[in-house]
Amino acid sequence: MSTEHSVPHFLKPLLETPFHARARALSQHDSYVPWAGYTTVDVFTSAEQEYFAIRNASTLYDITPMVKYRVAGPDAERYLNHLVTRDVRKLRVGRVSYVVWCNDDGHIIDDGTLFRLGPNDFRVCTAERQLDWLLDSAIGFDVVVEEVTEDIAALSMQGPTSCYILKRFGLEGIETLKPFELRDFTVRGGTIMVSRTGFTGDLGYELWMHPEHALTTWDELMSAGQTRGLRAIGSQALNMARIEAGFLMPNVDFVSAEHTVRIGRDRTPLELGLGWLVEFDKPHYTGRRALLAQQRRGLSRLLVGIDVEGNKPAHNALLYRDRDGNHEVGSVMSALWSPTCKRNLALAIIDAPHHAMGSTVWADIYLNRELVWERRMVAARVVERPFFAPDRRRLTPPADR
Fold first, then answer.
1. pLDDT at 213 over 60
2. Which backbone phi and psi does 365 adopt, to 5 degrees?
3. Residue 75 pLDDT more than 50?
4. Half-sphere exposure of 338 (CA within 13 A, CB side)
5. Is the distance from CB of 98 to CB of 170 less than 8 angstroms?
6. How far apart are CA 382 and CA 40, in angstroms?
7. Where is the domain boundary, 132, 150, 168?
8. Are both 159 and 40 inside the same structural domain?
């Protein structure tokens, strides 16, 4: 009788993470989505239940498919400083930074997180594979770039009770870990690296470990969190939280310049509202000249947050200058009715000058009600983002809950 491990790989093309057995046991819908070659849970029970756990308790989300690269060698810092738009020289050992990198035209290739593990030892984490670009960019530098995705299992624990649960799990001193810091902890003879990072805009941590410790870690975390509402979540709930936090998602809010085939579909970090990641007072990096030129001439479009009238999410809505829909000025990238903010929120690309703070545009929303389509033209105002930013996300030490 055939076993799971004897199934030919071409009949089972997606990889399973080290946590897959526990995830499958909890899944009530058998709803999965592919992520970077792995199969991952889209929803366990309901997106709403899982979302409220993020905001009111704690959650586990399997981030093992996050593509991970080790960058090491005498020129590691200089190489990365030439690759990304932020100044890597400012990143201290034991810290994490959000970064983006571009092509020569200043169009974004990808975003990710950069971990400084040592003076010449870094880890780059991205949502999609970027090895070709990273290797091509490394020509002329004394540096080694290698993918280590399968060598590292990872979990994201997010929510207001996450710090309390991690203390019960045995991470002594976790409450002193500051946002974007990382630290190694020894638990039951194994080492877990913990970073105070996440994709929810809430209090949260990410745990990085050897795959052999994955199932034991999952089980013991679930046991430690039993009295604090810990539950596993899928991608749908995470997407709701990240929109509230104003975070961008590749292939949803922007497409990598390596993948676009139509002129004008590329985006620069400045156009995506990521100007705070672009530093011009550092040594030359790929795309610097183009970004500097764009900054000088001004932006013709910008990704902004908008507050939409009513309670029907503006999914994929076109935006117009006036209620009559006479002049298109943008489109919605991501949208939701926020259960926490009690507001109809969206991230949208809008043309100048309509992207100015406080400006009003009109969203063309289509609703399907019992297989009948209805059209609504509603006002949408440009507002500050993040839409949701609780103090607990930065509080050190976090309150015990």
1. yes
2. -105, 135
3. yes
4. 23
5. no
6. 34
7. 150
8. yes
Unique residue bearing structure tokens 């290739």:
109
Residue at 379 is within a domain: yes
Q: Would you say residue 8 has pLDDT above 80? A: no
Q: Which residues pair with 108 in a beta bridge?
A: 102
* Block residue for tokens 């703070």: 357
Query: What is the rounded CA–CA span in Å between residue 234 and residue 237?
Result: 6
Domain count, the chain: 3
Residue 67 has pLDDT above 90, yes or no: yes
Q: Can you give the residue range of the structural domain that contains 372? A: 300-383
What CATH code is carried by the domain that includes residue 177? 3.30.1360.120
Structure tokens at 128: 């999609």
- Cβ(90)–Cβ(81) below 8 Å: no
Q: Is the pLDDT of residue 253 over 70?
A: yes
Closest by Cα among 294, 290, 288 to 82: 288
Other CB atoms within 10 Å distance of the CB of residue 13: 9
Indicate the pairing of strand 190-195 with strand 31-35.
unpaired
pLDDT of residue 9: 64
Digit-coded pLDDT (tens) for 142-160: 999 999 999 999 999 999 9
Instruction: For residue 33, tell me if it sits in a domain.
Output: yes
Residue with tokens 């805009």: 201
